[in-house]
Amino acid sequence: MRDKVSAFWMQMQHSELAETCAEIRLLVLNIVTFSRRDENAIKRWKKAGGQIAVITEIENQNVNDVVNRLEVDFFFSGCRDKSTALRWILQSQGLKPSRVATFASHGSDLFLAQQGAVIFAAPSASDEFLRTAHFITRRDVGEGAVAEACGLLFRTRMKLGRVSEKWTTGTYS
To answer: Does residue 106 contact residue 121 with C-beta atoms inside 8 Å?
Structure first.
């Protein structure tokens, strides 16, 4: 699977997938453990006009506290039907799935992940999930994986010349 990381980046240079990454506006996460690096990247993503959704089955105060601190745009906890939650977000924001990247870590979220145009997975994800992902982060969940995903989206925008000043400030990976 590790070869998939470098192969992906090589494909990104002038591919349709690069074009898709450059148009992403919503990052949907089924991850509730974030490193400081992840938190900073999420804040920069939002400051630059990107949106964040956290859709999770988990329901507890610690998760609520983290999500509130990050000021995510959409938060669904205790959510059993994640695809319906994502469809609601898309309809309420007038977004198309082609503007969505997803990041989840286990097989039960495979259907949710496939609703986005770009699928990120952490190296600890299930084999089925790793085979489906467009990009496998080098870092794991809670260790900077989300920051790495944000960084890839930002770098793609820069390489394709579709980035304003506010998209380029800061370090994402």
So the answer is: no
Per DSSP, helices labelled H in the chain are 2-12, 16-22, 36-47, 61-70, 82-93, 110-113, 127-132, 145-159, 165-168
Surface-to-core class of residue 92, CB atoms within 10 Å of its CB (0-12 exposed, 13-18 middle, 19+ buried): exposed
**pLDDT at residue number 2:** 44
- Answer whether residue 88 shows pLDDT above 60: yes
In the block, tokens 């898709």 appear at: 20
> Rounded to an integer, what distance in angstroms lies between the CA atom of residue 132 and that of residue 13?
20
pLDDT digits (tens, 9 = 90+) for 51-68: 999 998 888 898 889 999
Q: What is the DSSP string of 78-124?
A: S-S-HHHHHHHHHHHHT--GGGEEEEE-SGGGHHHHTTSSEEEE-TT
